[in-house]
């Protein structure tokens, strides 16, 4: 908990009254993110039996507290982000859209004292505990000692489908655009049932905006999404050249890559819905035909990356124990 002193110094008093902050996990462009727990819950944990499931129970309640930097423009962006996250939360809580619940940062609390001036000094989200972003996951594949240093096609397809559907929902159902779709703003949440298909979670709605028609800046999400997917596919192709093992690509893969390449440019007029409609069937096929050795490889890389991130930014059981029970 080496960063605690700095954290306490920076955080407003009212957030510290409600939350115990443990660790600064990120310094973003607009503010900082700290992991913590609600003090009310910490009090309640003292009465729960400390059996082997205790820490995993507590971990489910971990939160990520965003503290915008100390100038008005950062607080205004945070306020807009809160409005946006609340619209999303209300929508995904309705039964028809519950399948998108895990695709977006989930807001749980916010500073409402400065609503009249449209500023927000802090807000709280459910933590994505892995600390892994799509950017770090992609790099983790490059860093492995495995001969195949790129994300398998099945995993790229999964991310395309899951994130694409989330962006389509945002656009078509809520009339919102994220505004800054990039791999640093996509976090990877572990999926216990299918570890090879973790959930991509879209975070950072600080530059989101409302747009009813798909013109001008409204197209940025689609372009940025295609660019992001294209980067993953490019890495795949590059690796094949480097290791001299040109893969057997599934049918239609080349067209898919070409479309991502074209659609990342300004010239394309396609909407998210059209892109998904065109490639849904084949990417689902790629996802469902992931080979056993690829599944093992993905699970291994992801687990290693989560371990690294947890080592650097995560919270150990002993730290939770110390904060709840004041015991070393
Ligand atoms: N809910 C969350 N749980 C865990 N980490 C998060 C969460 N939200 C954001 N982060 C981490 O913090 C970083 C910065 O947050 P972000 O919202 O992108 O802020 P900024 O606007 O400053 O870029 C992200 O890239 C991600 O690594
Ligand atoms: Mg960001």
Automatic annotation (TrEMBL):
Residues 19-328 form the Protein kinase domain. It comes from the Eukaryota. Gene3D superfamilies: Transferase(Phosphotransferase) domain 1 (1.10.510.10). This is Protein kinase domain-containing protein. GO terms for molecular function: ATP binding; protein kinase activity. InterPro entries: Kinase-like_dom_sf, Prot_kinase_dom, Ser/Thr_kinase_AS.
């Amino acid at each position: 908990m080496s960063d605690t002193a700095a954290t306490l110094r920076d955080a407003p008093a009212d957030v510290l009254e409600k939350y115990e902050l443990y660790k600064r996990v990120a310094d973003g462009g607009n503010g900082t993110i700290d992991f913590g727990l609600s003090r009310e819950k910490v009090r309640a944990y003292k009465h729960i039996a400390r059996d082997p499931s205790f820490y995993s129970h507590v971990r489910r309640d971990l939160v990520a507290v965003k503290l915008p930097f100390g100038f008005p423009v950062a607080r205004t962006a945070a306020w807009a982000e809160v409005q946006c996250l609340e619209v999303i939360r209300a929508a995904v809580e309705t039964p028809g859209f519950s399948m998108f619940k895990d695709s977006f940062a989930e807001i749980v609390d916010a500073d409402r004292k400065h609503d009249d001036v449209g500023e927000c000094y802090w807000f709280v989200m459910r933590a994505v505990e892995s600390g892994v972003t799509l950017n770090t996951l992609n790099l983790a594949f490059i860093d492995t000692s495995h001969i195949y240093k790129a994300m398998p096609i099945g995993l790229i397809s999964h991310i395309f489908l899951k994130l694409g559907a989330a962006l389509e929902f945002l656009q078509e159902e809520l009339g919102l655009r994220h505004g800054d779709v990039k791999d640093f703003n996509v976090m990877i949440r572990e999926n216990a049932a299918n570890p090879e298909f973790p959930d991509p979670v879209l975070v950072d709605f600080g530059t989101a905006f409302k747009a009813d028609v798909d013109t001008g800046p409204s197209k940025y999400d689609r372009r940025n999404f295609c660019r992001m997917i294209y980067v993953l596919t490019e890495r795949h192709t590059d690796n094949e050249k480097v290791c001299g093992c040109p893969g057997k690509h599934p049918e239609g893969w080349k067209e898919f890559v070409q479309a991502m390449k074209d659609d990342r440019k300004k010239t394309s007029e396609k909407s998210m819905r059209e892109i998904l409609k065109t490639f849904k069937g084949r990417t689902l096929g790629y996802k469902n035909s992931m080979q056993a050795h690829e599944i093992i490889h993905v699970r291994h890389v992801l687990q290693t990356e989560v371990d690294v991130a947890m080592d650097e930014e995560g919270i150990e059981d002993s730290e939770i124990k110390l904060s709840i029970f004041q015991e070393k």
